Amino acid sequence: MCFAVYIGTNKELELGTFVADQTDIYFEKLSDEEETALRPKFSKTNIYYVGSDTSCSCGLVFESEDFDDPDEQTNKKSPQRFIDFLKEATKAENIEYYCCWEGDWNLPTEHEREIDIRDISLDKNYFVGTQKVFINFKKQIDE
Questions:
Q1: Whole-angstrom Cα distance, residue 5 to residue 102?
Q2: Which pLDDT score is estimated for 53?
């Protein structure tokens, strides 16, 4: 079973597919079953499944304490690209995020958080891998 990461945005994103040894992250439209189950969790117009270099969302999972582990270096690529995507996307709007196990779309959200993506780094406090958590990544406002 795999993790499934979803994002909500009002912007239409370019859809992609997994290509071995080339893909870092990609976005897919939801199946009808996913759409029906996930739509109540999101307020944004568009919801996308986020894939990674493993062909599923599992490649987005990373433990910050493993940042300097020599065996984990190749596992940083997709998580860092996801952070980079969120930093760029939140310049325009809030981005909604939800993670669960594949097929657990109907289970209730257990935690909700609001995060400024500029406060997140792969080596300190990365967030993907906790299931049934809904995160609102706040639109960046210059202070």
A1: 9
A2: 95
Instruction: Please name the residues in contact with 47: beta carbons below 8 A apart, sequence gap of 6 or more.
Output: 6, 7, 8, 30, 34, 35, 38, 39
Strand-pairing partners, residue 49, are: 6, 28
**β-pairing verdict for 95-101 and 3-9:** antiparallel
- Examine residue 101 and state whether it is found in any structural domain, yes or no: yes
Number of other CB atoms surrounding residue 111 within 10 Å: 10
- Eight-class DSSP state of 64: G
3-class DSSP state for residue 73? Answer: helix
Look up the domain containing 87 and give its range. Answer: 3-137
The answer to the question of residue 15 being in a domain is yes
- As given in the structure block, the two tokens for residue 69 are 């582990």
Q: Within 13 Å, how many C-alpha atoms sit on residue 100's CB side?
A: 19
Calpha distance 40→61 (Å, rounded): 25
Residue 24 pLDDT: 95
Task: Name the band, by pLDDT with cuts 50, 70 and 90, for residue 143.
Answer: low
**What's the structural domain count of the chain?**
1
- The answer to whether residue 42 is domain-embedded is yes
